[in-house]
Design brief:
The structure holds two protein chains of two kinds.
Chain A: E1 4-12, E2 18-27, E3 32-36, H1 43-51, E4 58-63, E5 66-67, E6 78-81, H2 93-103, H3 108-122, H4 137-149, E7 155-159, H5 167-184, E8 187-192, H6 195-201, E9 204-209, E10 212-217, H7 219-224, H8 229-234, E11 241-249, E12 255-259, E13 262-265, H9 269-273, E14 284-289, E15 294-296, H10 297-300, E16 307-317, E17 322-328, H11 337-346, E18 358-364, E19 375-380, E20 386-389
Parallel strand pairs in A: 3-8, 3-9, 6-7, 7-8
Antiparallel strand pairs in A: 1-2, 1-4, 4-5, 9-10, 11-12, 11-14, 12-13, 14-20, 15-19, 16-17, 16-19, 17-18
Helix pairs in contact in A: 2-3, 2-4, 3-4
Chain B: H1 2-15, H2 18-53, H3 67-70, H4 78-85, H5 87-120, H6 126-137, H7 142-155, H8 161-184, H9 189-197, H10 202-213, H11 215-231, H12 234-239, H13 247-252, H14 262-284
Classes of the chains: A alpha+beta, B mainly alpha.
Chain lengths: 399, 297
């Protein structure tokens, strides 16, 4: 077991393409750290630099206390699980799992014992003499895991290990990987583009975008206090809604967000938690509202300063919730490049409305009676509101 | 899968008209008949060769080999026993083995190593060098004969078995490298990287991953190279002398303008045919489909 430290790590390919820039991350001993980001953001390149499969063009990588920049993968004592599983097709499950141990000239009896232990842990005991082609997708995934755990390495590196599984199996294997990591306590770096995997598995989650680390934090903190528009929009499904507003302050230090003809009154807790907000008075700001912080006013109650008019454009009953796409006569925050990129990435731009009205996704209680085309009053949980600088996209917190 | 396929066939035959069904039946039948005819055309001369090699030379003037089918008494092993007592023939048979075996093994080994390097190792000038190899593919051996003869006499190895082996290896390699490089580059990169993570050196990856996975290609290469060298007459005719000549040259020297010595040629040719057949049978089991199945995804 070991900690992994990346300091000022960068990757520039021979053709000049930059994949990773100035990455500074310390993975604690026994920690489960997840790299998450859209495809092509450099998260896999970062992982492969830790593995040794990619040369490190800038900065240092340390595993334990050892600088590994020029150490070949076989001497780094880390195991990797590949997205494709990369099982050796000509070897049985037993030999696939034991391959690394055989290469290390471990005594046969010890290899056998370790392989069988690993197989028992993963429920593969009865498949040990099969070839990979005779296994199901889930079983292949387990063999790939087995090959990693049997070596008892300093760290596990996992590159989207679940993305080839169907949805149901993915949820199951996700839970198993989480449990396995807790039981073994091995430092793990896990790469995924799936924010649900990131949130459920990671002790901490590192959000990467265009090779740059955006935020590294425990999942709940990432959700509650995103550092910028990108993280706010990337974490959470459906994605956070963004609206443009102007900050107003009256003589009683009452903060109000003016959005077109409508206003939202901020409860005192919001400016108290955000001393920097004072600098935005009379200036434009981007308002972020999560779908679950919007409720049908006929259920949540109509409250002055928190209720806005809207029209239901699409209603998706999920059983536990009612996902409602609303159009509102408000200015949508669409100017910032992060928002444009997020909309492209997640495909969650809401339903297209002809007349430039803001599109907002809300998660209503299933008791709501709203119908498509209905005008509906919505109540916003303003104490949960997120505020971002309209130019830089950074979250507004401390001065 | 199977169930779905058989369902399709049932509905198909119900929906199709009589004419279409008869056409399908006879089409399949015609194809079978065609294949049988082709097989017979190919096999009859070989069969005739076998019978001829078993006939008493005294009978040759009395009729063709087919007479032996109705008169089995004509058959005898005397040609073979005579052949095996002729030291010129047995010696040249061993010469053929001594030429073919190393020329095949060397081409496979060097070709596989070079193929791996061209497919998976990064080194300066790799692509340019591979282009040169491709270029060598189109060089006909005929234009190399005279320069190589001069070279060999300068080196003092003319007429030796070594000289023939070197020539065959040199001209077998471009195709070997080309074939194996292309096959090896089809092995998923993830497999190499997984092996590297598991602690394998390049050598281990080559011997434990690439060679076993490349067996189908290696087997076909081995068969082709073996057949080519075993059956070669031109190269052997030019580079060997009486002590190193292989079976092909020895048999060719038995043909005469008037009255060829069939009693030597027929059993000799059949002997020469048996060995490549056995080699083919042996390597055939490596032609496995879907070696890569279950590896990635």
């Amino acid at each position: 077991m070991a900690r992994i430290a990346l300091s000022h790590v960068g990757k520039v390919y021979e053709d000049g393409t930059r994949a990773v820039a100035d990455l500074n991350i310390e993975v604690e001993d026994g920690e489960f750290l997840v790299f998450v980001g859209p495809s092509g953001c450099g998260k896999t390149a970062a992982l492969r630099m830790v593995a040794g499969l990619e040369t490190i063009t800038e900065g240092d990588v340390r595993i334990g206390d050892k600088l590994v920049n020029n150490v070949p993968p076989r001497d780094r004592d880390v195991a990797m699980v590949f997205q494709s599983y990369a099982l050796y097709p000509h070897l049985t499950v037993r030999d696939n799992i034991g391959f690394g141990l055989q290469l290390r000239k471990m005594p046969k009896a010890e290899v056998r014992r370790r392989v069988e232990d690993a197989a028992r842990t993963l429920g593969l005991s009865e498949y040990l003499d099969r070839k990979p082609r005779n296994l199901s997708g889930g079983q292949r995934q387990r063999v790939a895991m087995g090959r990693a755990i049997v070596r008892q390495p300093q760290a596990f590196l996992m590159d989207e290990p679940l993305s080839n599984l169907d949805a149901k199996l993915r949820v199951q294997m996700r839970a198993e990987i989480g449990k396995l990591q807790r039981d073994l306590g091995v430092t793990t770096v896990y790469v995924t583009h799936d924010q649900v995997e990131a949130m459920t598995l990671g002790h901490r989650v590192a959000v990467i975008r265009k090779g740059v680390l955006q935020q590294i934090a425990p999942p709940q903190e990432l959700y509650d206090r995103p550092t910028n528009l990108f993280v706010a929009g990337f974490i959470g499904s459906p994605a956070m809604n963004f609206l443009s507003a102007t900050v107003l302050r009256d003589d009683n230090d009452q903060y109000t967000l003016e959005m077109g003809a409508e206003t939202l009154v901020l409860p005192p807790s919001v400016p108290v938690a955000r001393p920097a907000l004072a600098g935005y008075v009379d200036k434009p700001i981007v308002v972020g509202i999560r779908p679950e912080d919007i409720e049908d006013a006929s259920i949540a109650g109509r409250q002055p300063g928190r209720t806005l008019p809207a029209r239901a454009e699409l209603v998706e009953p999920l059983g536990s919730d009612l996902m409602v796409h609303l159009s509102m006569d408000l200015p949508q925050a669409s100017g910032h490049e992060d928002i444009a990129e997020l909309a492209e990435e997640t495909g969650e731009g809401g339903v297209a409305i002809a007349d430039e009205r803001a599109v907002v996704v809300a998660r209503f209680s299933p008791r709501s009676q709203v119908k498509v085309g209905d005008p509906v009053q919505i109540t916003v949980a303003t104490e949960q509101i997120h505020l971002f600088d309209a130019t830089t996209g950074s979250a507004v917190w401390d001065a | 899968m199977t169930a779905a396929a058989s369902t399709d066939i049932v509905t198909g035959s119900i929906n199709r008209g009589w004419a279409a069904r008869i056409a399908a039946r006879t089409g399949g039948g015609a194809l079978r008949i065609f294949l049988i005819v082709v097989a017979l055309v190919w096999l009859i001369p070989t069969f005739g060769l076998l019978i001829e090699s078993l006939r008493d030379p005294a009978q040759y003037a009395n009729g063709g080999w087919w007479d032996a089918i109705t008169h089995p008494a004509q058959l005898t092993f005397s040609n073979y026993s005579a052949l095996l007592k002729t030291s010129a023939i047995t010696g040249s048979f061993w010469n053929t083995v001594e030429i073919t075996v190393p020329a095949t093994i060397l081409v496979v080994l060097i070709g596989a190593a070079a193929g791996y390097a061209f497919a998976w190792l990064e080194f300066p000038g790799r692509d340019a060098l591979f282009l040169v190899v491709i270029g060598l593919l189109v060089v006909p051996i005929q234009i190399a004969l005279i320069p190589v003869v001069k070279l060999y006499s300068a080196l003092g190895i003319s007429g030796s078995i070594l000289s023939v082996v070197i020539f065959h290896v040199a001209f077998g390699l471009p195709f070997a490298i080309f074939l194996l490089r292309n096959y090896f580059s089809g092995i998923p990169r993830d497999l190499m990287e997984a092996a590297r993570m598991d602690g394998a050196t390049e050598g281990r990856i080559f011997f434990r991953i690439v060679l076993p996975l490349g067996l189908p290609a290696i087997a076909s290469l081995a068969i082709f190279q073996f057949l080519w060298v075993w059956n070669d007459l031109l190269v052997a005719l030019i580079f060997t002398d009486s002590s190193s000549q292989p079976l092909t040259v020895a048999l060719a020297s038995q043909t005469r303008q008037f009255g060829s010595s069939i009693d030597v040629l027929a059993p000799g040719a059949f002997l020469s045919l048996i060995v490549p057949l056995a080699v083919f049978m042996f390597f055939q089991r490596f032609f496995v489909e879907g070696v890569m199945a279950g590896s990635v995804k």
